[in-house]
Amino acid sequence: MLPFLIKPMPSSHASHTQGKLEPALFAAYLAILVWAPLPFASNRLWAGGLLAALVGLVLAGWLALYLVGRVRIDPAIWRHARLPLLLLVGVQLWVFAQTLYLPRPLVEWLSPQAFAWHVKEGWLSFSLDREYTQYYLLRGCAITAGFFLTLALVNTHDRLKMLLQVLVFSGTCQAAYGAFMVLSGLEYSFFVEKFVGKGVATGTFINRNHLAGYLVMCLSAGIGLLLSQLTREHYRNWRERLRAWLRLLLSPKIRLRLYLAVMVVALVLTRARMGNIAFFSALGLAGLLAVFSGRRFSWRVVAFLASLVVVDMLILGKWFGFDALVERLENTHPSQEARVWSNAYTIDYLKDFPLTGSGGGSFYGVFPNYQAPELVGFHEHAHNDYLQFVVELGIPAALALAAFCGLALYSAYWVQRQRQTPLYRGAGFAVTMTVLWAAIHSSTDFNLQMPANALTFVTILALAFSCRTLPRPGAPAAGPPRGG
Description:
Blueprint: H1 2-5, H2 11-35, H3 45-67, H4 75-99, H5 104-110, H6 112-117, H7 130-153, H8 157-184, H9 208-227, H10 238-249, H11 252-269, H12 273-293, H13 299-319, H14 322-330, H15 338-341, H16 343-352, H17 363-366, H18 385-393, H19 395-418, H20 422-441, H21 451-466
Helix pairs in contact: 2-3, 3-7, 4-7, 4-19, 7-21, 8-9, 8-11, 9-11, 9-12, 9-20, 9-21, 11-13, 12-13, 12-20, 16-18, 18-19, 19-20, 19-21, 20-21
């Protein structure tokens, strides 16, 4: 009797319900981006697993809608995004291969050191920590899915703007929380009292350098958003100029500028040396590219970027301990920094695993075999993203990741040069600044080993490809293959 008690849903109602599901998936993904940094940057087994599950659910929802013909991706996007997506998928396939049990002669041929260190009989894996490499694969698949979902869901001008706004919101919340913990002396992280990093801003992260990296990415999104709002009006007299300034004081631009100031204050309070150096270096280099990628030289862009340095660092930064950061930079001697001279031992590690790597996530267990007695302490990660990717994944896979970043940088430059929509150009600036930040900061830290930072990173980089073909403001997004 049950089938007779259930009334069939009208086709128009079903279509209307399905039409609401895709925006719901976009909102869910935005919520995931805000959640990811909260539980210690999702750098705990339970938090990383939960993050992968949440992203997987959104991906499954999108695929379900795709199978019934309610969503699709503009084919033009695929022309530009296919190669970078294949590079990310290829890296995950290689990590999967690292976990497989393979014939002993094959492992001995491709990875003699892994063969020598295995103690079990029978077939062997390239990974020396197979179980953790499986978890590493789970996180990597979630990050790759995040890249795909950004391409699939950020398909209009308004959604792009909303994504950038959500990143600014998340960064501002992290900045405000981190600064409040330092200035109030409460010193709590994610519902637990901080056991490291006391006296500096860490937000809900453990390591201040990772908060600094996250803030720089959110600052990149905010600066790109603010650049898109620069006006080109010319005023005939001082009255018109005064009215424009008064309108500016009451406009959303001022709120956005305050959010950026809060993030810069927190960045200074992290006392992260390379985090701050990378921020200003990336800002300057991205600014130069933005100026010269335009078809006309813009003094407004130059003045705006200069104001970020002058106002934020010389005024706000000085109130909140910029002198302490400068003093820490002056007292830095690279030859005495363990994170610098430990790289020599990581290079010795690389010489034994150049092709296959030792397995994703295996650094913490393999590095002690190369660690010198004078290098005290437990090193869970290399203080160098480049080296960690190479020793764990091998040189070919690391080159694939480098090519992925290079393609994003090229596409971001193309967007700034060819697209005339201000928001798309601003997003191109955000991508450029994010890639340059990672290129600099990764030389002394391991931001991209944090799931929250890696997910945010690929989300921003995906914008370089989607902005190449996004419709003009007010134009509809690419609809489903049939129907509405």
